Each structure stands twice: as C-alpha cells, then as structure tokens.
Amino acid sequence: MEAATVQKPKYLGLLNAISNAESAAGVYLTAWADVTPDPDLACTLRLVAARETSHGDVFCRRIAELGFSLRRKVDPKGYEILSKLANPNISDLEKIGDREDRDTDPFGDIRRRIAEGEFDPMTANLLTWYIAEEIDSGRRLRETYACVREKAGQGRAGAAVGPSADAEAIMACMTAGFARLEKSLEKLVKASK
To answer: Which of 7, 20, 117, 122 is the most buried (most CB within 10 A)?
Structure first.
C-alpha cells in the first residue's frame, strides 16, 4: 500500500519563518529580562518572551500537523542581538532604542490572506490568535518602554523637560529584538506571496 503524498501548502514558508523568528525572540527577551535592573521591565519581558517561545512551539507543531518538519534557520544577526540584550553593561534605554509607533499594520497582509481563504481553517485560527497576541505584546512593551524612559528622565536634577542629548542619542540607536523580528516577519510575509 502506498503512502499518501501530502501537498505542500504555499504558506508553509510563512509558518516556518514565524516559528523560527518567534523562538529566537523568546531567547533574546529572556536574556534581557535576566539582566535588567528594572523589575517592571523584567516582568513584561518575561511575559512576552514566554509568548514568543510558545508561538515558536505552536507553529512548529502546526507544521508537523500538516505533515512537514520545521526547517530550523539560524538568524545571522542572532549572536549580535543576544550579545547586546544579555549584556548588563548596556542600558535598558540603549536596548529599547528609538521605537516609534508604526502607522502601518505589520499583519495586514496576513489578515488579507486569511480573509481571502488562503489558509486552511486551523491555520487561519492559529494566525488570528497569533496576531492578537503579537498586538497585545507590542502594546505591553511600548507601555513598559515609556515607563523606562520616564524613570530615566526623573533622575536628572534640574533637567529640562524631555530627554537629554545623551538619552536622545541612545534612543536613536538601532534596536534589536522585537523591532528586528517585526521587520523580518514583514519581509518574510512579502516573500511568501
């Protein structure tokens, strides 16, 4: 008796990319949480890291349910990101960097593809759940980052309103972790079309 061949879904690459990126983000954020002196930031980072790790595991499982295996890929910038986030000598402000709210919806393409019926029902539900958690995680991180910035600004006696030039320079640095993950996902979504 011949084994039935499973047809490869055209969105398998997207699921693979999400699993790899989310698993890596979980490692990065846990490393940062382990070294930050700010207990509120650590709490938020641990929550989001747990979610990211869970997303990596759940998307890996979904790939297996579809009859395929996760293709693990190492992020070429992973060591650099981890080195920065795990370094207790780099301030939380520098790790946060200049994170601006985006006017665009990074999940717009996936939402459109869900609405068009591109995904099987289980995968569509999984992606909908994932997007909701990502949006909530982003909100939590933005709120916590704002608190970190505010705390840093409160420690300067006689300081003018707003961040110092040093703080501005630090916030202007390239960000790691979550912002890179989001950009990577956007690129991968576009590439999987």
So the answer is: 20
